[in-house]
Amino acid sequence: MTGETGLSRVGRAWRVAVLLLVAGGVTAGTFGENDRSWPFAPMTQFAFKVDPNGQIHSLGIEADDTAGAHVEVPLGGGGIGLERAEIEGQASRIEAEPRRLQAIADMWASYAPDRPRLTRVHLVDTVSTLRDSKVVSTQRTTLASWVVRP
After folding, report:
1. pTM (2 decimals)?
2. In what order do the strands lie in the sheet with 55-65?
3. Are strands 55-65 and 118-131 parallel, antiparallel or unpaired?
4. Could you state, in order of their start, the residue ranges of all structural domains in the chain?
């Protein structure tokens, strides 16, 4: 043992190496990656300022079911198991390949086996327009839809 820390040279070298690897990963992720590389990249969904006279976009999943109802698919731990941030992070891929929404219908079938099955799943953007930091209007736009395959 050396020094006042009680760590050997090997112990200190190991800790310095881990620190350098983590710092390098965070630096590389910050400049070259996106949220998919977290924890070695910034969590951009939290890294923005809202203009008090701007708009807020909130993505969600809605669906039509076999009973003819239009339902909001619950996200998060109490829902189908996907977090809203996961949907937001995959939005461009879902828009390019709406068949990815099939996974939502499959998760729904596991989450709510006693409820009617989904027939069509929609990626929806709810846009809230602000004026002086207060919501003055809300508009929903369907970005992608998928007819569920049994």
Report:
1. 0.66
2. 70-72, 55-65, 118-131, 134-147
3. antiparallel
4. 9-45, 49-147
Could you tell me where the beta strands, DSSP code E, fall in 4-133? 55-65, 70-72, 118-131
| 8 A C-beta contact, residue 30 and residue 42 | yes
- Residues 61, 104: Cα–Cα separation, whole Å: 8
CA atoms in the 13 A half-sphere facing the CB of 9: 0
Integer angstrom CA distances of residue 25 from 14, 17, 33, 39: 17, 12, 10, 9
Q: Across-strand partners of 118?
A: 65
For residues 4-43, one letter each, b for 16 or more C-beta atoms within 10 angstroms of the residue's C-beta and e for the rest, the string is: eeeeeeeeeeeeeeeeeeeeeeeeebeeeeebeeeebbbe
- What pLDDT tens digit does each residue of the chain (150 aa) get? 455 667 889 989 999 999 998 888 777 776 665 555 566 666 555 556 788 999 998 999 999 999 999 999 998 878 898 888 899 989 999 999 999 999 999 999 998 899 999 999 999 999 999 999 899 999 999 999 999 998
The total of other beta-carbon atoms located within 10 Å of residue 133's CB is 10
Pairing type for strands 70-72 and 118-131 reads: unpaired
